[in-house]
Amino acid sequence: MDMDDSEEFTRPNITNAGSKTFHWLMTLALLLILPSISTTLVFAEKVHTAFFLQIVSLVYAVIEALFLRFPDGDGHEDRTSRGTAWFLLFLNALTVFIGSMNSGANWFMNKNGETKKEFHWIAKLGEKSVRIIHRTLSVLLTLTGWVKSCLAPVSMFGFCREIHTGQCLAHGIMGTAFIGYGLVYALILVIPRIRETKHRNSQDFYDSLVMTVWGIVNTFTEHRWGREGWGHGDYQHTAMGIIWWSGGLLGLYLGRGGRRTWIPSLLLIYTGWAMSEHNQHLAISTKVHYMFGLSLMLGGAIRIAEISFLLKDARSIPGKIMSFQYLPSFCLIESGVLFMAANEEQLRLVLRLEADHSSYIMVVTSAAFLIYLWFLLLLELFLNLTSSNRIDLSKYASVSGSEPNPDAEGNFATDFELDNFDHGEER
Hints:
InterPro entries: YTP1_C (IPR018827)
Distance between the termini: 62 Å
Transmembrane segments: 22-44, 51-70, 85-108, 137-157, 169-192, 288-311, 361-383
Number of strands: 0
Mean pLDDT: 83
Region (Disordered): 399-427
Structural class: mainly alpha
Keywords: Membrane, Transmembrane, Transmembrane helix
Domain Protein YTP1-like C-terminal: 145-380
């Protein structure tokens, strides 16, 4: 088996490992995990509790921006990590400000119960607009917390500088996109209102649309057409863009009218196969890319089996989720985490630590398990919060004295769930 000669790599001199690890765990907890909980609460209309948690995140964001650093071995923190800390501070502050309005705080009202002059624009926004803005900012806060949590190790190890910046950006953006794709799959699977929707277009139609757009962007941005020569990587990434928009267009055609289609899943298989054949300068990099491609191919194949054989082209099994259906989401999340962890500098660090590809892949896959677990817990929290106030009225006669309606329970549950998702109020 091909292995890299680790003797040419010196073991890294890691300083203050304990304090840096604790700092990163605090950042993970207070700038990513806590905002993700508050975002779930905001969507479940538990705004007061979410507002309190966002204040806690804001306090830590202030401390993070003013006093805490993620320095490398030479004591320097890169500008991207530092800038993200300040951006998080202002985004947290804005989210808390909008959250105070959404939670009904009266600090912008005068003694007569009227809006103060400097806050007249708040009254013009309206309650629904404030709710939408607060939800949007809460999601952005969680996404930015994810970016900060990923940038911290990059800064501490001095990665992604000079000529390595482009590769790190590509791996970070694409890896996060695959993770997000897997989380969207999980969201659609777990939330009944979305899973059993009667919308005119299926999920596969929108998957095809996104792949078409992304493929067009990839085709014309991965290589400077007419301004530079073609290289090995240019051919691979441009070809991937071409197959995405070509297949995406076919998926749009086959998925019209709400029909299911396997095209997006097939594109994942081709993408995974291409990545598994993607030879790198380092043997460990080739092996990690192979595992990334394998995960994508497995996810695509399972998705085809789910659509064609398990669901038989239906959108869902009413009121039921098969254990098999959780696997495609995990495969996408694992592939995304593997791709983020496959940049060259990071893999050189693995060699410098005298570890091998199998150990590294298992640790990275462990992160994928934890990410998937956390997202499923958030979805479970949302479902419990939005269903806690449901009342069964099917066993009671109406005011007019008529007999109970045997279908009332199902109709009421559905109607209440839809209403709660958009207009529920915290008690």
